[in-house]
Automatic annotation (TrEMBL):
<keyword id="KW-0479">Metal-binding</keyword>
<comment type="similarity">
    <text>Belongs to the dethiobiotin synthetase family.</text>
</comment>
<comment type="subunit">
    <text>Homodimer.</text>
</comment>
<feature type="binding site">
    <location>
        <position position="114"/>
    </location>
    <ligand>
        <name>Mg(2+)</name>
    </ligand>
</feature>
<feature type="binding site">
    <location>
        <begin position="174"/>
        <end position="175"/>
    </location>
    <ligand>
        <name>ATP</name>
    </ligand>
</feature>
<keyword id="KW-0093">Biotin biosynthesis</keyword>
<dbReference type="GO" id="GO:0000287">
    <property type="term" value="F:magnesium ion binding"/>
</dbReference>
<keyword id="KW-0547">Nucleotide-binding</keyword>
<feature type="binding site">
    <location>
        <begin position="19"/>
        <end position="24"/>
    </location>
    <ligand>
        <name>ATP</name>
    </ligand>
</feature>
<dbReference type="InterPro" id="IPR027417">
    <property type="entry name" value="P-loop_NTPase"/>
</dbReference>
<comment type="pathway">
    <text>Cofactor biosynthesis; biotin biosynthesis; biotin from 7,8-diaminononanoate: step 1/2.</text>
</comment>
<feature type="binding site">
    <location>
        <position position="23"/>
    </location>
    <ligand>
        <name>Mg(2+)</name>
    </ligand>
</feature>
<dbReference type="GO" id="GO:0009102">
    <property type="term" value="P:biotin biosynthetic process"/>
</dbReference>
<feature type="active site">
    <location>
        <position position="44"/>
    </location>
</feature>
<keyword id="KW-0460">Magnesium</keyword>
<protein>
    <recommendedName>
        <fullName>ATP-dependent dethiobiotin synthetase BioD</fullName>
        <ecNumber>6.3.3.3</ecNumber>
    </recommendedName>
</protein>
<dbReference type="InterPro" id="IPR004472">
    <property type="entry name" value="DTB_synth_BioD"/>
</dbReference>
């Protein structure tokens, strides 16, 4: 099927926690969009734990170009941004962080904003990750773990996003191996609890950053997921149950 992706596709890839796979999913989505011919770019609003953490650098390497990702302020302490700034005696300004993301959101190509940790992570000036996603007015893809414990984390995160008017275009249960009863039952239960489409992403090769894009594209129906994102954007951030075709 010829895929025409709307050039104004914007989405926030958020997580139920830190380390759940937001960067892996972001790299796969941006890689898929760029392979489809669109000037897609990821933005990491704030990077903490840097070095070694460098999510934008990973996405850029995965897509083979620095044009595939950009990053706001970088802080060394591996903490929530507001806490890292405090510890490192640095100043973070929410308005500047938001401004950078708005500029990326409004540029020509698709924009993929990666969250920092989970949703209630303090960013700056009393604002949290969820405030930024709500302020940007883009739909979200929620990434969570696949096993026992994720029902609670995922349902709470979806409810928090919806309370802020953020459409959840899909839930990605990451590193899914189906080796436990919890894993095998979670996708359907989460769909029932949240009425969100749920996708299982198996472990992919992390040998090289490029492998991640190939792996995510193989394992995740990125096109279907982005159709729901495009519908949500078209419907003013409401997730319609029937994904529509992208238009250019
Ligand atoms: N599908 C996957 N297959 C194999 N390994 C994975 C997968 N998803 C995540 N990982 C492993 O988990 C690590 C953390 O994933 P990732 O960096 O994407 O998390 P994150 O949610 O972006 O974390 P942060 O909150 O720090 O941004 C990866 O470096 C990788 O080692
Ligand atoms: C250090 C690394 N870059 C992480 N993304 C930072 C995540 C902060 C999580 C804060 C918390 O929820 O306790
Ligand atoms: Mg990350």
């Amino acid at each position: 099927m010829e895929t025409m992706v709307t050039s104004k596709l914007n989405v926030a890839v958020v997580g139920t926690d830190t380390g759940v796979g937001k960067t892996v999913v972001t790299a796969g989505v941006v890689g898929w969009l760029r392979a489809a011919g669109y000037d897609a770019r990821a933005v990491k609003p704030v990077q903490t734990g840097h070095p070694p953490d460098d999510d934008a650098g990973f996405v850029a390497a995965a897509c083979g170009t620095h044009a595939a990702a950009t990053c706001g302020p970088r802080l060394e302490p591996a903490l929530a941004p507001a806490v890292a700034a405090d510890v490192a005696d640095r100043t973070l300004e929410y308005s500047a962080i938001r401004g950078t993301c708005e500029t990326e959101r409004d540029r020509d190509g698709p924009c993929v904003i990666e969250g920092i940790g989970g949703l209630r992570v303090p960013l700056a000036d009393g604002q949290e990750v969820i405030d930024l996603v709500a302020d940007l007015g883009v739909p979200a893809i929620l990434v969570g773990r696949s096993g026992l414990g994720t029902l609670n984390h995922t349902a709470l995160s979806v409810a928090a996003l919806r309370r802020r008017g953020v459409a959840v275009a899909g839930v990605v249960l990451n590193q899914y191996e189906g080796s436990t009863t919890a894993e095998r039952t979670n996708p359907e239960i989460i769909e029932d609890m949240t009425e969100c489409p749920v996708y299982a992403l198996s472990p992919v090769s992390m040998e090289t950053p490029e492998d991640v894009v190939a792996g995510v594209r193989e394992e995740l129906p990125v096109e279907q997921l982005l159709q729901t994102v495009a519908s949500a954007e078209a419907d003013g951030n409401e997730v319609s149950r029937n994904p529509t075709e992208f238009e250019s």
